[in-house]
Fold:
Amino acid sequence: MIRGPKQTMLEPAVLADFECHHQNQAREAFKKLECILTAMIIPALGQQHPISKDLYAQLDNVKLGSQNFCWRHRYIGYSYSATDVGGVQ
Structure:
């Protein structure tokens, strides 16, 4: 029998609704930054410029590393910041 290194079971990560709300805010701020970079900065430098290529890579790294700011849990954050509940204001 082959044994690998000792493995430890980790507790599941739990995010509160306000933490998901902050992830939603971070995602929106990132979108604005991404828009500025891709619409103004990168075209000014030129698509093939080494800095442009690095900026594209860094944008992708942020999305992948943050799991796109907890995209799959975004509705929990939206419910935390909701001002319109049940269609009635």
Summary: Residues 3 and 87 are 57 Å apart (CA to CA).
